[in-house]
Amino acid sequence: MEIESLLNSLDTSGHYGHVLSVEESQVLYNSLLILQNENHFRKIFFWGKIFGCDKDYYIAYGYKQDALHGRIYYYGMDCNTWGLLPRPTPNGIQLTPLASTKFIGDPSLVIDILIEKDETSIPGKRKQPQVKQLKEEDRLSSTVHLIMNQVSLVPRGAWFKRPDGVIIDNISFEGLSTLDAREIKSFLHARIPTQKINTNLLTRDDYNYATDFLDPLDFDIPEGCWVIQITPAEDMVILKSLYWPGFIFYHYLRTPKHGFIYLGHGKKSMDLTFMLCPFFTSNT
């Protein structure tokens, strides 16, 4: 979420049951303003908070020109001091989903990851289980990368792709209507597109390459992995990811204001596919 929304976290993240305290909001707002000025960011965002056993991790990011490709991430543990979050490594991205323990709050901590011999997510053949080590700082970076790649969102039309390929905020975006907000295809993944252009083109009659260059959510599987809620006043729509409990996206209808925040333990719900499937019983 943008730093201006930090002081109103009760209206956004409060729908999920987690809010930032007044002290956290004020300190984050001031420290992120300083971070933005020091790095000359066009915009800076508070990404969220990953809970740890001893200390929590606060994540923020900003960009100077490109809203998608120019993101630079930072992390801190006291809402005031920020350090550069390293880029995720291929090894960290592979091992992070296998980590079963919670975050501790020590970036220098090294944990052991058990890889079973029949594990399919790790390439290579193994005759016996292996143990690999993963630094918590690398795990944190990989977790942020996975969440951003899988569930970060923008409303349709919020971003504009210039002819030179730079992605910027669409100044003519006036927000979604209540009717459009009820459709899952009105929201797009804020990541590098993985679908072919023809695939996205065939899904819309009013396709516009300058605004519809991202992947829509209606391709996500399984169906039902997103929950859409509209407030009783019909002034805000909220999307929750069932894959990543703690992620919440909000958009004030008929306004360009939108954002997302993650407040959770950094663990993906791997059992979602079985939870959504109906339980069939056979009569014998």
UniProtKB/TrEMBL annotation:
Any one annotated GO CC term: kinocilium
BP term (GO), one: motile cilium assembly
UniProtKB keywords: Cell projection, Cilium, Cilium biogenesis/degradation, Cytoplasm, Cytoskeleton, Flagellum
Subcellular location: Cell projection, Kinocilium; Cytoplasm, Cytoskeleton, Flagellum axoneme
InterPro entries for the chain: Radial_spoke (IPR006802), RSP9 (IPR055316)
Similarity field: Belongs to the flagellar radial spoke RSP9 family.
PANTHER family, per the entry: MITOCHONDRIAL RIBOSOMAL PROTEIN S18, RADIAL SPOKE HEAD PROTEIN 9 HOMOLOG
Protein name according to UniProt: Radial spoke head protein 9 homolog
